Amino acid sequence: MIRTNPELLSYTETIYHSNKHHINIEQYNPTEKIIEQNKRYNWVYIIKEGVTKCYLSDEKGKDFIQEFLGKGMEFGEIEVFSNKPSFCCIEAITELIVYKISYTHFNNLLENDKKFNKLIMKAMAEKISYKAPRHSYQQYHPIEENILKIKENFPEFTEVVSKNDLAKYLGITLRSLNRALSNLKI
Amino acid sequence: MIRTNPELLSYTETIYHSNKHHINIEQYNPTEKIIEQNKRYNWVYIIKEGVTKCYLSDEKGKDFIQEFLGKGMEFGEIEVFSNKPSFCCIEAITELIVYKISYTHFNNLLENDKKFNKLIMKAMAEKISYKAPRHSYQQYHPIEENILKIKENFPEFTEVVSKNDLAKYLGITLRSLNRALSNLKI
DNA sequence: GTCGTAATGGGACAGATGTCCTTTTTAATA
DNA sequence: TATTAAAAAGGACATCTGTCCCATTACGAC
């Protein structure tokens, strides 16, 4: 549930070291928001260090966490193509260090750097291919099974993610999560 | 809920007419499967005419419909980048006509045709950005509201999509869908 | 320390949903 | 027309989940 993309990270570092003029490094503290929903930005971010949550808030203030993003994950890139305001919110969970690239430079890289272009394509393809199975699984399986599956794939989940966020990731209430956990006797 | 991509369709037609050697046209009947889950293919498809459903089946045979794809939508492209077998199933709902491009040619186009490259990027970005709000909305809103929302955005949905498929799209059982519909007195 | 706030845990109840079945309707075909 | 099979509709029941509480614990600011 904490996604990473080592390949994109290492290539971004290479680009950064060969020409620092167009890429910045920024730092954020836990609970700071890097991107807010429905606002416009001109930056694409790639995570160098730390973990964020990516979530949507509905009109009633309920959050649905899409994904936890770790090293090498990019965000803000969708809006380069859609030309719309941000559709989700990105918030730091841990200390966070990011590479920050302007839209202009991002587009330059896409046009002139074939390897970068391919890596971004790949990153987007991955985002598509892990969303579908997750939502499908969540819809049709009891909460207990979803929890067991997460424990299996990310044994360290409780260390980084609060119960509240876990519930929001599963699309359920905290009460239901607690009930499920006590059924599992964890 | 029936996605389209006119821009990609018209550009594909242009490519097709300028050089027919690397793009085929194929036709399918309703209920025919173009792509099956967990199989490997070497083709990317772009819909010229008709509607398909894209769904995942779990181990118990329950289907979760990701999306209904109409004119100009592509499928099979994720696997070019991930190098994995297909993660979903694509099945014709209506009479279907598709452009079929080999992986080799698809990669050539991506490398050598900047406009094509950009259109594919855009198409993937869109796939990402409509999945998230939908699943978020579905999780937190009662079935009735989801139905009303679909009716609003796609008044013609009942004409193309069966009740059974609508239920699978909403991630609920047919029984629950019927109950909701009778509450709404539709 | 202590005050306040957030995180955690759980009881009680109502309402929503799935499962299992049966019936009705529709449409296609012999 | 008669015969199926598929789609649609819905009853009955058990279970799951959310809502609304309240209690406890942990932790940081003062």
What brief labels describe this structure?
homodimer; 186 residues; Jelly Rolls; five-stranded mixed beta sheet; 8 helices; 48% helix; 24% strand; DNA-binding
CATH class of the largest domain in chain A: Mainly Beta
Please summarize the sheet with the most strands of chain A. 5 strands, mixed
The most extensive contact between chains is: A-B, 37 and 37 residues
Strand order of the largest sheet of chain A: 1-6-5-8-3
Strand content of chain A: 15-25%
Number of strands of chain A: 9
Class computed from helices, strands and strand pairing of chain A: alpha+beta
Oligomer: homodimer
Report low-confidence residues of chain A grouped into runs of 5 or more: none
Order of helices and strands of chain A: EHEEEEEEHEEHHHHHH
The overall pLDDT of chain A, averaged over residues, is 92
Distance between the termini of chain A: 19 Å
Rg of chain A, Cα atoms, Å: 17 Å
User: What is the CATH architecture term of the largest domain in chain A?
Assistant: Sandwich
Determine the CATH superfamily of the largest domain in chain A: Jelly Rolls
| Number of alpha- plus pi-helical segments of chain A | 8
CATH level-3 fold name of the largest domain in chain A: Jelly Rolls
Describe the global form of chain A: elongated
- Estimate percent helicity of chain A: 40-55%
Number of self-contained structural domains of chain A? 2
